[in-house]
Design brief:
The chain is mostly beta strands and 287 residues long. The chain has two helices and 16 strands.
């Protein structure tokens, strides 16, 4: 399972490199269609997806046309009517993004039609001890026939992201488990897990492929905090009913699992796997 996740990450690194050649459409600075410098973001940083447009995947953070975000994988992020979203449904044959994904990662994206299966959105600002939140709604689970889609696919919040090989993430898997992981040197280490939707016996990758409810707004929050002894505390919260009331579902301390804790500032962001997802009210603030 861990090996499959690592393989998919490497495949997407190669794919993203090709997107340097794609034209980019600015969502946050409509007067420009080219790469822009990162914004000087201060706490709290709240993004409400209130300016319509399309942010295309770029081959590197410096090539992003948004001063706030970089679409590292997944083709593009659409923004409309206060919602950010992955690609919804399948891309047409003539779409340039589909054609590139068909060549570079046909297996995970249904011949390029669903690049959103490997969506990765990374902030261009770095954060230390911080809290990250977003509201989300799953509109569809994509039953793409690939060994890389399984119960461990889901929605996650990045923390202390250095690069695709070194980061924390916390979130909810399609098999209903909450999980906090550390990826160091390309290897995943599970720091904590807990069942929050259904049971493991309920999950089946074909007949019951996602124990998270569809078409339901929920909130997810992660806190990454340096402790005095040099360790890092990571806490995961869930607002199941979208009331604004978050309940802690996991808390772990990384004292050196797989290597030294990530105590330096890093990027934040969102990862989703094999789903069409919409977002509201992305919020980052210092603890």
């Amino acid at each position: 399972m861990e090996q499959r996740e690592a393989v998919m990450s490497l495949d997407m690194h190669r794919t993203a490199a090709l997107f340097i050649a794609l034209a980019v459409i600015t969502v946050f600075m409509p007067t420009s269609s080219h790469a822009v410098s990162a914004a000087n973001v201060t706490s709290p940083f709240r993004y409400t997806f209130n300016q319509s447009g399309t942010l295309m995947e770029a081959g590197s953070m410096g090539d992003s046309s948004s001063p706030y975000f970089w679409v590292n994988s997944g083709g593009k992020m659409e923004i409309n009517n206060g919602l950010g979203m992955t690609v919804q449904g399948g891309l047409p044959v003539v779409d340039a993004t589909r054609q590139l994904y068909a060549k570079m990662n046909s297996l995970d994206t249904a011949n390029g039609t669903m690049p959103q299966n490997t969506f990765r959105l990374v902030t261009r600002s770095q954060w230390g001890s911080a809290q990250e939140s977003v509201k989300f709604r799953i509109t569809k689970t994509n039953l793409t026939d690939t060994p890389n889609r399984d119960g461990y696919s889901g929605i996650f919040l990045f923390g202390r992201y250095k690069d695709q090989y070194n980061l924390y993430y916390a979130g909810i898997r399609q098999d209903g488990e909450a999980v906090i992981k550390k990826k160091i040197g390309g290897t995943y280490h599970t720091l904590g897990e807990k069942q929050v939707f259904g049971s493991q016996a309920d999950y089946d990758r074909w007949s019951n492929p996602n124990l998270m409810p569809a078409n339901t707004w929920m909130g997810i929050r992660a806190k990454y905090e340096n402790l005095a002894d040099g360790s890092v505390r990571i806490q995961l919260y869930l607002d199941k009913n979208n009331t604004g009331n978050f309940t802690q579902i996991l808390s772990v301390i990384d004292s050196g699992t797989g290597g030294a804790p990530f105590t330096n500032k890093g990027y934040a962001g969102i990862r989703t796997d094999y789903m069409d997802v919409q977002f509201e009210d992305f919020d980052l603030r210092n603890l």
